[in-house]
Amino acid sequence: MLKILALIGASITMVLGLELPKNHIVETSWLEKNQNEKNLVIIDTREKVNYEKGHIKNAINYPKNEWNKGTTIEIPKLYNTPKQIEEMARKAGISKDSVVVFYSEGKEDTDFENAATALWNMWIYGFKNSVILNGGFEKWSSEKRVVAKELPNIKPSDFEIEEFVNDIASLNDVVNAIYDENIQIADARVAKFFRGEDDRKELLRHGRIPTAKLTPMLRHVKKENSYYTFISQDESKKILNNSGYGVELDKPLIVYCNTGQKAKGLWFIAKFNAGMQNVKVYDGSMVEYSRTNFPLETGEEF
């Protein structure tokens, strides 16, 4: 039975004088108002070439590949190690008292996965005062807000990881979930991958993990003018649940895609915009799973 979840969008958390929405999404007006707060750190997750053409003032550039430097069992592009995160955070001037705003390009419906990947990397190592800028750089610049080209003068911090938040699912967790009706699996890719109709070369086999629900990440943004913004919390809940045929919002959920990027975008949506309590990312995703002998399904879901 689907539980009724309270809306969290209007709720806020106060962090060192800054009001942070509990859905971890801030508007351009919020960032402009708080841009010069001493504890605010802004991270641009676009490619370096775009950052150099112009960026939000004081932003430091960490493109998406900087957040996917971990490797295990020869599977690349996994989450960063503690040492890598500490080095990145220190260079960016992030301390335990900071509030971090991540932003992506915002021109495409998949762009926010880059900001979500960065936020997730910080989140799993216990840093929770992070938000994503709604609409990304495209919304910011289209509104004629200040764009800079000079590099920020950052004072390095002494950031240290103090805890590990286990929002990560292993291959064993995924296999166990296939046979446990109380643990759900969600596929963040589009339908052709779900049906196994793709020819992506890094996948040794094609299809979906058994029992997975088709829940594309890109369904949770909408186009406004030249940029994409998040849909409302009510809309995200309805799309995830799909009238009872999709995700049950009160049960644990494991999300995956091909390389783990869209899975982190869907993790962000499910955890914050839909308010789910137990959401984990299978970071190895189909690149890893396709290299095993565990079962796959193809074709339409029945």
From TrEMBL:
<protein>
    <submittedName>
        <fullName>Rhodanese-like domain-containing protein</fullName>
    </submittedName>
</protein>
<dbReference type="Pfam" id="PF00581">
    <property type="entry name" value="Rhodanese"/>
</dbReference>
<dbReference type="InterPro" id="IPR036873">
    <property type="entry name" value="Rhodanese-like_dom_sf"/>
</dbReference>
<feature type="domain" description="Rhodanese">
    <location>
        <begin position="36"/>
        <end position="149"/>
    </location>
</feature>
<keyword id="KW-0677">Repeat</keyword>
<dbReference type="InterPro" id="IPR001763">
    <property type="entry name" value="Rhodanese-like_dom"/>
</dbReference>
<feature type="domain" description="Rhodanese">
    <location>
        <begin position="179"/>
        <end position="298"/>
    </location>
</feature>
<dbReference type="InterPro" id="IPR051126">
    <property type="entry name" value="Thiosulfate_sulfurtransferase"/>
</dbReference>
